[in-house]
Amino acid sequence: MALASGVRFAERALLRPWALLRGTTLGRTEPAAGGGGDGARRFGSQRVLVEPDAASGVAVMKLRNPPINALSLELLTELVISLEKLENDKTFRGVILTSDCPRVFCAGLDLTEICGRNPAHCAEYWKAMQELWLRTYLSSLVLVAAINGACPAGGCIIALSCDCRVLADNPKYRIGLNETLLGIIAPFWLKDTYVNTIGHRASEQALQLGSLFPPAEALQVGLVDQVVPEDQVQSTALSEMARWLAVPEPGSSQVGPIFFRSRAPADQEHDAKGHRRPPAEAARRRHPELCQLRLQRLHPEVAAGVLGEAPTEERLRAVLPARVLAKPILVGTVALEDSSPVFAHLKLLRALCFAHLPRRP
Ligand SMILES: CCCC/C=C\CC(=O)SCCNC(=O)CCNC(=O)[C@H](O)C(C)(C)COP(=O)(O)OP(=O)(O)OC[C@H]1O[C@@H](n2cnc3c(N)ncnc32)[C@H](O)[C@@H]1OP(=O)(O)O
Hints:
Layout: H1 2-15, E1 28-31, E2 41-44, E3 48-53, E4 58-63, H2 73-88, E5 94-99, H3 119-137, E6 142-147, E7 151-152, H4 154-160, E8 164-168, E9 175-176, H5 188-198, H6 200-209, H7 215-221, E10 226-228, H8 233-246, H9 257-260, H10 279-286, H11 288-297, H12 300-307, H13 313-319, H14 341-356
Parallel strand pairs: 4-5, 5-6, 6-8, 7-9, 8-10
Antiparallel strand pairs: 1-2, 2-3, 3-4
Bound molecules: ligand LRBWVUCK.
């Protein structure tokens, strides 16, 4: 009997994972401040407020776990559920992630979730953190981080998983991966993301020293894309979002995260002998349907290039139609950093295609 009711509870929890959360009221819908129609209804949970705008297809998602938005298990879970909900609703193409707590975007891992807790709890907690990472990093939505406060460690991880980062110009709002100073070693996927964002040497220094960058330095090193006065963070994030959404099927499909973001944790798989698989192979094993889908959806001439061997600019120029290359293009900087030919190729393709591919029927 107890077993049966336990199973029923587990089933219910699987169907409605938020039911496990303490004090959570996910799915509640209420009119947004100043809003009227359907496009201005907001929903969310206790710790995540979602303000959707159906007309623009953009939702603003606010972290609301005062005082410092520490990533508690509940906040992680609610973030994942809210993102999933938006991803499943085809009305939405972009999400702006920001904080509802003054002066802090997100303080990172909730240290009370790992200090003095038993291994099972730590494992559950860490799994939730990775789940959030996967959900954001491989999201089909365009994500823009509107960083309106301090953004250390896990906060920076969330920001790094977005497509674009706008930081408020306040010297107190520092951003970076400082976990080494706490004795926490960054996992390889986090290191890889740092490297992908600010380059190898800068990452090596910043990770080892646990650097937190003030806005000007964060901009200089490439950790954020824009630094703006605090009262312009939201509007700038919206403008950035408009830029990304103006591109046909931005980020999400033709040449989306699976291309650029081949180094998500799941990609780092090892073969039976313990040898690390090349990232491209690992990604294909993990997401065969996505890889295939996306290759098929590419412009035919580009797909032909993908299937070719040499990921050189010359070869791409040869297979890409002239109209695609009509405007000046960014190449080279994008293609160089990955040792895998396939992904170097895809990165280069993305750089080329992102602005120039004609809309697919
Ligand atoms: C394998 C792991 C991969 C690594 C991934 C992630 C690693 C991490 O995220 S580890 C967490 C690292 N986070 C930090 O180092 C941030 C530490 N906090 C701060 O720097 C400041 O608190 C912050 C700038 C965010 C805000 O400053 P203030 O506004 O001045 O607030 P307080 O410092 O007074 O803090 C208020 C209150 O919150 C407690 N606190 C702060 N950070 C955390 C945290 N990460 N987890 C839990 N609790 C935290 C702080 O102790 C204060 O508590 P009280 O004293 O009880 O009021």
